[in-house]
Amino acid sequence: MNKRIIKYFLIGIAISLVSVTTVLAQQHQHSEQHNNFRSPYAEQLDSPVRGLSSEEVDNLLNGKGAGYARTAELNGYPGLRHVLDLSSQLNLSSQQIEEIEVAFDQMQSQAKSIGKTIVSKERELSEAFASGKITNTELEKQTGELARLYGELRKTHLQAHLQINPLLSAEQIKKYNQIQGYEIAK
Fold first, then answer.
1. Residue 69 shares a structural domain with residue 107
2. Rounded CA separation 153/113 (Å)
3. More reliable by pLDDT, 102 or 40
4. 5 Rama sector, left if φ>0, alpha if ψ -120 to 50, beta otherwise
5. Containing structural domain, residue 33
6. Residue 119 covered by a domain
7. CA dist 51 → 56, 68, 113, 114, 128 (Å)
8. Ordered DSSP codes for the chain
9. What is the pTM of this model?
10. How far apart are CA 23 and CA 26, in angstroms?
11. pLDDT per position as a tens digit, 150-184
């Protein structure tokens, strides 16, 4: 009888130890997850402009598309840089290449200029917050100006897609869309 009691007593202790160990492990895991939480914005503390990633600053200063013309791209209006990169696969003529290069250079020059202004205005906005002295009036003014500039930048990229579409044949556009993996339903 005593052996049976001792056996059940030891089983009870074993079950208790497993339960306690499980609870402690879960608490430790939760604590680790909590301690390891890091905001995705923390990396932007070292960015040239707080509030923008280094990649966003680079895209703006270098006139890169950064998705601003995605609506054109996904609706059958190829991007200039991509068309130039695919010139041999699309069988572009030398005249097409020349005209697209001119359009690309114009677009990129304009986009760089707007991007430089955006970076400057974003820096001003960041500095206004850093100073702790930004007002609602100033916030409205600065964000309104940034909205206008971002809109101008997007329009610049979208217009470039519009500009080159007439330079390409329907077959070239179709091939471009196939290469890019787009199924354009029209």
1. yes
2. 9
3. 102
4. alpha
5. 1-37
6. yes
7. 10, 18, 20, 18, 12
8. -HHHHHHHHHHHHHHHHHHHHHHHHHHHHHHHHHHH---TTGGGGGSSSTTS-HHHHHHHHTT--TTTTHHHHTTT---HHHHHHTTTTTT--HHHHHHHHHHHHHHHHHHHHHHHHHHHHHHHHHHHHHHT---HHHHHHHHHHHHHHHHHHHHHHHHHHHHHGGGS-HHHHHHHHHHHT-----
9. 0.74
10. 5
11. 999 999 999 999 999 999 999 999 999 999 998 75
114-142 tens-digit pLDDT: 999 999 999 999 999 999 989 999 999 99
Q: In sequence order, what are the residues at sequence separation of 6 or more whose Cβ sits closer than 8 angstroms to the Cβ of residue 28?
A: none
Which residue type sits at 63?
Answer: G
Task: Reply yes or no on whether the pLDDT at 35 is more than 60.
Answer: no
Does 92 share its domain with 171? yes
CB count within 10 Å of CB 139 equals: 13
Same structural domain for residues 63 and 133?
yes
Percent of the chain whose pLDDT exceeds 70 = 79
Q: Same domain for 144 and 171?
A: yes
Task: Examine residue 42 and state whether it is found in any structural domain, yes or no.
Answer: no
Is residue 76 domain-shared with residue 142, that is, in the same domain? Answer: yes
